[in-house]
Write a structure and sequence with these properties.
By secondary structure, the chain is an alpha+beta fold. Among the domains are: 100 residues, Immunoglobulin-like (Sandwich); 139 residues, no CATH class. The strands form 2 sheets. Strands 2, 3, 4, 5, 6, 7, 8 and 9 form an 8-stranded antiparallel sheet that branches. A 6-stranded mixed sheet has the order 1-13-14-12-11-10. A hairpin with a 7-residue loop joins strand 4 and strand 5. It is elongated and about 85 Å long. The chain starts with a strand and ends with a helix. The structure holds zinc ion (ZN). Zinc ion binds next to strand 1, helix 3 and helix 4.
Length: 387
């Protein structure tokens, strides 16, 4: 079954902590090591020959690779028999996702100089699982169940998703991106940290260049898994296109484009039927209501995705795929929601919504499914099947 996948676009909290600019410093030769205990901590260790007077302090600096912001912590140290050893145990407390790569180095403060080690990296991952890894273009995927079949599915989803993004929207990944598959949803949620709700089937976190996805054995070998992968890669590609700093682009645009790209790979949901039924029943959600987080675990959730899909398709049908690219570029250049739309297609969100509603009104597409049908679809969909 497909799973609900949350989207993390906002900066992850720990990222916002104080900056530690790395100034030029003499370097020291040391062995670095990091031990991951995925649900609780990463322990960073240093071991170096040391003949100078005892240091006054040893610090650890760590952060995402190539990121300007780093965290700093104080490491406990010991000097014994000409060797300096130090360690620091960091408890991420739900701020890290499994698969995240962390770069770290130590800094040793002496009486009159501060020296640094070169940096090393560690992947925050559940080391109890027998991970395999494979690369496809800029995407590196990790999986531990499903054998070669899952790898085939992953390659298919990655290739087809990236092809649709590139050919239709001129979008591509700009940084290496990691895709981590769990075959056990409960374990995935536990590894994601406290507070991950039971309906979460994965997450796309652009700041980590990371997608964590629950791919149950029922999905292996099904085209819908490839479609889910394409959906999640779209979120990352959108964030890469917008660049830094991350901008709060409306959720309808994120999810609308992700569902359009997903549908280019395989149909996961009958979005059109869902929207038509909601229109007939006068239950559509206002687009301003689809700017922030989507409703979860309610019949409104699937409708929110379906409406986003319909709205983005409406823009594409009327102004072409390039309009979507233009809107994203306007966000990249700092436009607000309304001005991004005005710059790209000359209409405000309200006018656009009115025009979109008018197309639904004229739609003689398929008689709307009964409300009962929708409810049933949503009920099946919700805990297990949602974008
Ligand atoms: Zn999504």
């Amino acid at each position: 079954m497909l799973a609900l996948v949350g989207l993390v676009v906002a900066a992850i909290a720990w990222f916002a902590f104080g900056a530690a600019p790395v100034a030029a410093a003499p370097s020291i030769q040391a062995e670095l090591e990091a031990e991951v205990d995925v649900r609780s901590a990463i322990t960073f260790r240093l071991d170096a020959p040391w003949t100078a007077p005892p240091p006054s302090r040893v610090s650890i600096l760590f952060g995402l690779p190539d990121a300007p912001v780093t965290r700093r912590g104080r490491a406990a140290f010991e000097l014994d028999d000409g060797r300096l050893t130090a360690s620091h145990r960091w408890r991420p407390r739900g701020t890290l996702l499994p698969g995240a790569e962390i770069e770290y180095r130590f800094e040793v403060h002496g009486a009159d100089a501060t020296a640094r080690t070169t940096s090393s990296t560690v992947t925050y991952i559940d080391v109890q699982l027998p991970w395999r890894t494979q690369s496809e273009g800029l995407v590196e995927f990790w999986w531990y169940a499903g054998d070669d079949g899952l790898a085939t599915d992953a390659v298919s989803g990655i290739r087809r998703g990236l092809a649709a993004l590139d050919e239709d929207f001129g979008l591509e990944l700009q940084r290496r991106t990691r895709l981590v598959f769990y075959a056990d949803g409960d374990r995935m949620r536990a590894d994601m940290g406290r507070g991950t709700r039971a309906w979460v089937g994965g997450v796309a976190a652009a700041r980590f260049n990371l997608i964590v996805l629950y791919a149950s054995e029922f999905e292996w070998g099904r085209s819908t898994l490839a479609a889910t992968i394409a959906h999640e890669l779209t979120h990352i590609a959108i964030e890469h296109a917008i660049g830094e700093p991350p901008r709060a682009i409306p959720t309808w645009l994120h999810e609308g484009l992700a569902t359009v790209v997903e549908s280019a790979v395989a149909e996961r949901f009958s979005y059109e039927d869902i929207v038509n039924a909601a229109f007939e029943a006068n239950r559509l959600i206002s687009l301003r209501g689809l700017t922030g987080s989507f409703p979860v675990q309610s019949s409104g959730a699937l409708l929110a995705y379906a409406q986003s899909n319909s709205f983005v398709k409406f823009i594409i049908n009327r102004w072409g795929e390039s309009a979507i690219t233009d809107i994203l570029h306007a966000y990249r250049d700092g436009a607000s929601q309304d001005s991004a739309l005005r710059q790209a297609i000359g209409l405000s969100l309200n006018s656009l919504e009115a025009e979109w509603l008018a197309t639904l009104d004229q739609s003689d597409a398929a008689p709307a499914p009964s409300a009962a049908g929708l409810t049933a679809a949503a009920a099946v969909a919700l805990p297990l099947t949602q974008p």
